[in-house]
Write a structure and sequence with these properties.
It is a single chain. A hairpin with a 2-residue loop joins strand 6 (177-178) and strand 7 (181-182). Helix 6 runs parallel beside helix 8. The chain folds into two domains: 29-362, Alkaline Phosphatase, subunit A (3-Layer(aba) Sandwich), CATH 3.40.720; 372-462, Arylsulfatase, C-terminal domain, CATH 3.30.1120.10. It has helices spanning 6-27, 56-63, 78-87, 91-94, 116-122, 190-204, 227-232, 240-263, 305-308, 335-343, 358-362, 409-413, 434-451, and strands spanning 31-37, 65-68, 71-72, 126-132, 150-154, 177-178, 181-182, 210-215, 270-276, 312-315, 324-326, 330-331, 372-377, 385-390, 393-397, 414-418. It is globular and about 60 Å long. The protein has 468 residues and is an alpha/beta fold. The strands form three sheets. It has a ten-stranded mixed sheet with strand order 7-6-5-4-8-1-9-10-2-11, with helices on both faces. Bound molecules: calcium ion. Calcium ion is lined by residues 38-39, 78, 220, 277-278.
Length: 468
Amino acid sequence: MKHIPFFLLSLAGLLVSVVPTAIRAAEARPNVIVVLTDDQGAGDAGCYGAKDLDTPAIDALAARGVRFTQFYAAAPVCSPSRAGLLTGKYPLRAGLTGNASSQPGGKGLPASQVTMAEMFKAAGYTTGHFGKWHLGYRPETMPNAQGFDHSFGHMGGCIDNFSHFFYWQGPNRHDLHLNGREIQRPGRHFADLMLEEAAAFITQNRGKPFFIYFALNMPHYPYQGDPKWLVRYKDLPYPRNLYAAFLSSCDERIGVLLKKVDDLGLREKTIVVFQSDNGHSTEERAHFGGGSAGPYRGQKFSLFEGGIRLPGIISWPGKIPAGAVRGQLAHACDWLPTVAELTGVKILDPGIDGKSLVPVLHSATAASPHQVVHWLVGGNGARAQWAVREGDWKLINNVNEAPTTTLTAEDKKLFLANLATDISESRNLAAQNPAVVQRLLKLHEEWMAAQKSLPTDDDPQDRKGNER
Ligand SMILES: [Ca+2]
């Protein structure tokens, strides 16, 4: 013993005294599951007003948690929306303002960005990704390099659910990966494979805290609803019937996941976050529609409310209110600091844009943590679509609406809405309110000026707003 240096003995003592405490603290922490749906319309859930389709699992989650009525995605399209959710930073600051490439080798969320998975992993959680990624298709940007111990899913924007081939354009390529390696499961429904993988992960890690990012690729096209749901909705008009069947098929699988949590007795030990990544699609592959934005104008790709104001729910039975509805403005970037506060986990990146929603979860009258919120998609050039909201006022630049838009060129350039008096953004109030326009323009310019020095790996080739 006398030959062992004192500092080593001290270190050993430190390990004995500190590590068990740290492990105990980690073991006491709740699990976190983030459920993300893909292209689910703003009005497409029973608890968000849908009358013609069934979403019992999503509704049950709302009944056992807090449901937001002014919840915003970080972007109206897949990749930047996911970047905001996983980093807690505006997509521009996270370095990804457009869709990541769906081709192997494509850029994505810069590896330097710190994801929610990295945050939980650093705190001792076991971390799992199941489903769609669409945040980079090269080793350093794929899930295992962004904080996930385990990863199962597709790297690009969309796949056929049975063949697992990319479903956008050629050349045909298979996209199903387990921990970065391509695997073959032909003929099996992708979401059912996700469930099998996630259930095994939960069972294996039931005795210690885990973080799951369950990113469903539904109801994103191709609409491939289960036969029983297609029968259920056979009298709905096309393509609402196809969309509804696929959304209910999606909802049913969310129910299976949450039942697994309940069956293992983990319900009170598990925080569940739910949101859609962007509004419903009106692309040709989506049969030009099927989804609904409810009372809002716009859809996927648009910074009208229908593209970004979406279902957003959080549940933690016994710890946060159940069956509560919150009207305060909340944002996808808020989930990271919110679950960090709820779990007692340290936020690694001090530069996040999200704010903890914990005070709002406990109070219908607490102020929203946001006075001003920004969006920007499609790069930082003159053609970018951006929006800024301050209070009830919202200004959109370069409005993107479906090809059937009735907007004039002037309206598209700058559209000012007052959400207190016109929830549907039906009238452009810019000409009548030049002082408001100037104030919001200044807010945007100041925000942009503050981003200038930030690095970006965003690929200009990938800024066209599609799923390539
Ligand atoms: Ca999407």
